[in-house]
Amino acid sequence: MSKSILLQLAIKSLNQSYLWLVFLLLAAPLVSKSQHINEHIQNQGLYTFLDELATSQIIELNTAVKPYSRLTIAGFLQQAASDRDKLSKAQQDHLKLWLKEFALETDTLKTGKLTLFHHSNRSSLHLLPPEFSYRDNNFRILLRPVYGIRFMQNTNTNQTASIGGIEGVAYLGKNWALYASLRDNYNSGEPFTKPEYFTQEPAGNYKFTKGSEYSEMRGGITYSWRWGTFGFVKDHLAWGDNANGSNILSGNTPSFPMITLKIKPVKWFEFNYFHGWLVSEVIDSTRSYYTASGDYKAVFRKKFIAANLYTFTPLKRLNISVGNAIIYSDMNVQPAYLIPFSFFKSIDHTINYNIENQNSMMFLNLSSRQIRNLHFYFSAFIDEFSLTRVTDKTKHNFISLKGGFSVAGWPFQNLSLNAELTHTNPNTFEHYTETTTYESNKYNLGHYLRSNSMDYYLSFNYLLPHAIRIKASYNYAYHGNDYDYDYNGSIPVDQLPVLEQKSWSHQNFSLHAEIYPVPNLRLFTSLSFDIIEGYDLDGKTAQFYLDKFSPKYLHGNTTSLILGFNLGI
Questions:
Q1: 91 falls within a domain
Q2: What is the tally of structural domains in the chain?
Q3: What is the pTM of this model?
């Protein structure tokens, strides 16, 4: 059978709404210089190290969009290695560690301790860290187990949390790459997260047996060419510069499937886009039914997100990013939202003319590292905006603003400082239509404090030789009146008082230390002092707000000691 006939049969078998995806693959150049596998955003030690290198002007990168690809990270590390004389002994030890971790991406074979098998720089199997790797001209693969445990002794409770699973990455030829990660999470006590909690713990849909547990499956397949990448993945994304949680995309919801596109055709421009399938957890009564055995089969209403972000670099180390997104529901995948470069609100006005619109929002992120050792950044999530509200002191727009700066390598080379402020107006991230809220699985996609809140954050990081990092941080966060999004309320939603009173507050001071004795193995400990309070407000008791926004083991004044290790992120 000829190639043209095979191609026709393949195209006919696809849904028409996805034909443009095939076109992208066929139109891409045949020769690639890069392949894309996400390095997960929970690898905070690595991402912090790269941020510090960028602030010290050792490397240049766009920190507004994460995760980075493993090959991109390997390139940054090799660039830093070429300027090794500018690094301290502690920085060189960290760099050496991460270069070993990304050996597969630098065309070398990682060597470990307790090697069981090693063959001619092609394949290796070792126990510390436990992993198998193989490489040749057309195929590279890395497979390894994931395991971790965290012991927490707290003023109110003792808990043990564990994680177990397996992960792998593979590069096929010059263009294709795929990865997969399966992890089961278990907690002996109550869950660390719920959709209502003000926390930055990774989110999960918990089952409750003897304790609480959830499973998380991530992975994807990507096709890359010299200046771009297209992929179908299920993963976490973080958009917006931050030191204590982004207010654009935090990456703290359960992962969701998405198609992604990233292009960087010139040095001064980068474009990111994704279309995701969210989980509404809103029952669709018209599609739900009773089975023959009498059981009720519930079906969720459909919910999607499309988002893009344009990043311009008019001056070296100055990145200006603007973008927009739309949450839409009650329809199938809309082809118009598969056009990556669109202003989605305008499309919505056409598709939903003279009826209820979907939920659209805009983003802004500014990042400047033009002064060596100093990073200034600002980000804005614009949910709903009107110029008339700017001049009217009785009204407010629905926005979340974040500003901060970091100092790295000054006055001491191994020291870095971060300071950040986040302010969010009432009803930001929310929507009066339940299926178009800025959420997936009921978890907010944006800032962890959600609407009508303030967050102050300060931290110090210090690097020591032998891949040791010590961190001290202070965080003060509070939430104002917990308003419902009610357009028919007695007070218009854009005239509700902003942070006039407190319903909940949290002060935290923590000391944290971690060490990587070998690549992919992290030992950590932390000591945390917390004061979490609720306040009688709007006819509800202080205990009501404590229970709603924070787990019981953190209520009141608590001291927590944590010990643990992670094999894998």
A1: yes
A2: 1
A3: 0.91
